[in-house]
Amino acid sequence: MGDHDDLRKFITDLAVVHGRVVLSSGREADWYVDLRRVTLHHQAAPLVGRVLLDLTADWEYDAVGGLTLGADPVALSMLHAAAPTGRALDAFVVRKAGKAHGLQRRIEGPEVAGRRVLAVEDTSTTGGSVLTAVEALREAGAEVVGVVVIVDRGAGDAVRAAGLPYRAAYTLADLGLVA
Questions:
Q1: Could you tell me which of 111, 108, 115 has the C-alpha nearest to residue 69?
Q2: What angle, 0 to 180 degrees and rounded to 10, lies between the N-to-C axes of helices 71-82 and 128-139?
């Protein structure tokens, strides 16, 4: 099996949790995809980075990140997967709100102004979190080249409606789940 198939197995084995849950969008579901069980796993995290780098290989960007917390391990997996290939890829974290102390930055990490960046998220249902990150990135002067998620729960239309290219490594159908 290759990276894509291996990561799908980690997701179905570790991250898919059955039972009634309320999503961040407010919607209810009979299952939940808890991707932090994968993005923070010692064997799966490197796969996340390689799969998403491969999925976006035709896009030009030099920094990756999104709204904390879902995007943080995704961005770091991509940063670490890029390093052995010689690719210089920075990561950043977008806060939900600016800090009231210190440097009062909303985006932590290397500067994003004037750079081509990729917005990431682990999974997205409405696109709300990743679009919040996109707004902050644009306000900071970054050029957002697109959005990529590990698992799409339905956010693609909203992201594309915002004028951004959108890709997902897996759909719910790929994971044997129904919306």
A1: 108
A2: 70
In angstroms, rounded to a whole number, what is the distance separating the alpha carbons of residues 133 and 4?
Answer: 26
Residue 124 known to bind ligand: yes
| pLDDT tens digit sequence for 128-149 | 999 999 999 999 999 999 999 9
- Name the pLDDT band for 125 (thresholds 50, 70, 90): confident
Average pLDDT over residues 27-42: 92
Tokens of 75: 């961005």
Q: Is 121 annotated as a binding residue?
A: yes
**Burial code of 14-41, b = ≥16 C-beta within 10 A, e = fewer?**
bbbeeeeeeeebeeebeebbbbbbbbeb
Is 127 part of any known ligand binding site? yes
DSSP secondary structure code for residue 173 in this structure = G
9 annotated binding-site participant: no
Is the backbone peptide bond immediately before 14 cis, with ω within 30 degrees of 0? no
Residue 67 near residue 129, CB atoms below 8 Å = yes
Instruction: Confirm or deny that 80 is annotated as ligand binding.
Output: no
Q: Is the pLDDT of residue 35 over 90?
A: yes
Q: Is 54 annotated as a binding residue?
A: no
**Residue 129 among known ligand-binding residues:** yes
